[in-house]
Write a structure and sequence with these properties.
With 477 residues, the chain is α/β, with parallel strands linked by helices. 33% of the residues lie in helices and 18% in strands. Helix 3 runs parallel beside helix 5 and helix 8 runs parallel beside helix 9.
Length: 477
């Protein structure tokens, strides 16, 4: 039987001999704690990359080598997955592993704007991300339905623009204490938080607090169609929006008050962000004049740079005058339209890189199949676990130079996901697909669907034993 490791390491060499028997009582402890307690030697090896590690297990114990805390942390995550039940108790089979990631950016986007998700859910998700060696949690903090972060420079945003969600349910926002708790938890798990303030579209909620900043909603036939299909009514200025339509809202580009707002909000968010990335949105601004769009997105990016951070934007922002080094996040299909591909290439042409989030593969809010109770199907129909795995980041945008792709980020939009149970059901196991694509070597016997499916089946079994409501479709599809 193959080792049940996800993501699959760069090099795995089974060893001869008896397994390592863990101490009596291990079954009552968490796998990670049990594995860590059996480490007999851990040493520094400057020749290893920051996230790389070596791991040797035999009957005598466990030896870990790493050059930095990240590598040691990943070694422990691998050890936790190696713990298994043997005939005589809990064991780890003898093995030598040499490992390092393919890409530095391995992430998950959680939308807390359409439905608010509390600190407890986000902290739980950070724990699970660390198990899969993910490095970035991108929080989509603002959208038409709500503003989810307390801003001392603009307190009205939390007071007036956070009270509801899709479907009219309760809203919510993170206080400063909440945000500090999330940052601390993320740091302990080796994960960087990436806040997103989406603009100039997806800004209807801003108008609830500052009506002078937002243009009247642009109600198109597509907005009417979505309202007819999903409910929520048509957007009206000054009225909370609880529907699913997109593209109707916009900031009033060119107004001095809007520029002041961007300086206040983005400057404060940058000050609250210890990591190097701040996301400025830029997607689906269908109600904004193209020239105005380019002007405002360019200004927002300049403000982020002025505060010492690197701006990230959805790939549409490639048509704006972004500073060199800005990061693009591609959300088109695995076979992109010419327009989407051109916009993505523009980031690379300016010295930037791309995070790949193809919506028909790693948008975790897509249904698994037509019968899935939660989720949507707009990204070329349902996304099975198999489809979430069978793609490669370097193949999506033809003609990119080496190093243009900095990583992979799955995305969990929450129009239909109201609580942690929904997060669990939709993210697991497909988040594991994104994690392996981002970490593991591109090719090899284990980097094919049949082998991944077998390993993932074991991970699903263990998740479910640990109380995670992981989707069992992987066992039968």
């Amino acid at each position: 039987m193959t080792l049940p490791l996800v993501p699959w390491p760069a090099s795995v060499r089974p060893r001869e001999g008896a397994p390592l028997h863990l101490a009596p009582g291990t079954a009552a402890r968490a796998e990670a704690e049990a594995a860590a307690s059996a480490v007999t030697s851990e040493h520094h090896d400057a020749a290893l990359p920051d996230e790389g590690y070596r791991l040797d297990v035999d009957a005598a114990g466990i030896v870990v080598a790493a050059s930095a805390p990240a590598g040691a942390r990943h070694a422990r995550a691998t050890l936790a997955q190696l713990v298994e039940q043997g005939p005589e108790g809990w064991v780890i089979r003898p093995v030598s592993i040499a490992d390092a990631p393919r890409y530095p950016h391995r992430g998950l986007m959680l939308d807390v704007a359409r439905h608010f998700h509390p600190v407890s859910t986000v902290a739980w998700l950070l724990d699970r991300m660390a198990e899969l060696k993910l490095t970035h949690l991108h929080l989509h903090l603002t959208d038409d339905q709500g503003w989810r972060l307390d801003m001392r420079s603009r307190p009205a945003l939390a007071e007036r623009a956070s009270g509801t969600s899709v479907g009219g349910g309760p809203g919510g926002f993170y206080t400063r204490a909440d945000w500090d708790d999330l940052l601390s938890h993320a740091e302990r798990r080796g994960v960087q938080l990436v806040p997103e303030i989406d603009l100039p579209g997806h800004t209807h909620a801003v108008g609830l607090a500052h009506p002078e900043l937002c243009a009247p909603p642009v109600v198109t036939d597509e907005v009417r169609r979505v309202a007819a299909e999903h409910g929520g009514g048509l957007p009206r200025a000054g009225v909370p929006y609880t529907g699913l339509a997109v593209g109707f809202s916009s900031l009033r580009v060119g107004e001095p008050a809007v520029e002041e707002f961007l300086h206040d909000v983005l400057g404060e968010v940058c000050a609250l962000t210890p990591g190097d990335l701040v996301h400025i949105g830029g997607d689906e601004a269908l109600g904004t004049d193209p020239d105005d769009y380019a002007s405002l997105v360019g200004l927002a990016a300049e403000i982020v740079v002025a505060h010492g951070k690197t701006p990230v934007a959805w790939h549409e922002a490639g048509r704006a005058p972004l500073p060199r080094g800005a990061v693009g996040q591609f959300w088109g299909f695995r076979t992109p339209s010419a327009e989407h591909a051109e916009a993505a290439r523009a980031f690379v042409a300016r010295g930037g890189t791309l995070v790949m989030s193809p919506s028909d593969a790693v948008y975790l809010d897509m249904k698994y199949d037509p019968s899935t109770p939660l989720g949507l199907t707009w990204a070329d129909g349902p996304t099975s676990v198999e489809r979430s795995y069978e793609w490669d980041p370097d193949d999506i945008i033809p003609g990119l130079p080496d190093g243009a792709v900095r990583g992979v980020e799955a995305a969990l939009w929450t129009e239909t996901i109201r609580d942690r149970a929904g997060v669990e059901r939709m993210a697991f196991p497909r988040l594991a697909s994104a994690a392996e694509i981002a970490w593991s070597p591109r090719s090899g016997r284990e980097r094919a669907w049949p082998a991944f499916r077998a390993r993932l089946a074991e991970r699903v079994r263990r998740w479910r034993e640990d109380g995670v409501d992981a989707q069992e479709i992987v066992l039968t599809s």
